[in-house]
Design a protein that fits this description.
Blueprint (H helix, E strand, L loop, with lengths): L7 H28 L3 H12 L4 E3 H7 L7 H10 L3 E6 L2 E9 L1 H21 L6 H15 L10
Antiparallel strand pairs: 1-3, 2-3
Length: 154
């Protein structure tokens, strides 16, 4: 009995998942070794650092983080107890809560960044040509574009 040939889209999807499953735990280990925080915390620190005034509503933070969207509140609780972030009421909407990056959080991000970036270089970028990186970047960006979710026109 022969195995059914998968469509190129299914093969690409499976490879994307396998790469994610292989590299994320290794990157988590590297970041943890460098600064003692998990990759999910680094993700929160990075997003808060990129935000205006280094603060985001908790709902916005949940939309932006990559690794642990469903656990953002628990992650922020743990990070707050370590002094990396702090919560405060949103002055524009008292029903909302802001997460703010602390000075200690910025320092932790600075300590973790070299390990994070070198891990990406070693495990991902160095294994690809610049042309391959550009093609992957364009392809993945097109998947995330809102127009691409609309489906075929007609």
């Amino acid at each position: 009995m022969s195995r059914k040939v998968e469509s190129p889209g299914v093969v690409a999807w499976e490879l994307l998942l396998r790469v994610h499953a292989a590299l994320v735990p290794e990157l988590d280990r590297l970041v943890g070794e460098v600064c003692g925080v998990p990759l999910s915390w680094y993700d929160v620190l990075l997003e808060l650092n990129r935000a205006p005034d280094r603060r985001l509503r908790m709902t916005e933070l949940g939309e932006r983080v990559v690794l642990s969207r469903s656990r953002v509140s628990r992650i922020v609780d743990a990070m707050e107890s370590e002094g990396l972030v702090r919560r405060e009421p949103d002055p524009e909407d008292r029903r909302a809560t802001l997460a703010l990056l602390t000075v200690h959080g910025r320092e932790t991000l600075r300590q973790a960044a070299p390990g994070y970036l070198s891990g990406i270089e070693r495990m991902f970028s160095s294994r690809l040509t610049l042309e391959e990186i550009e093609v992957i970047s364009r392809a993945l960006a097109s998947v995330l574009e809102p127009e691409s979710t609309a489906g075929p026109e007609g």
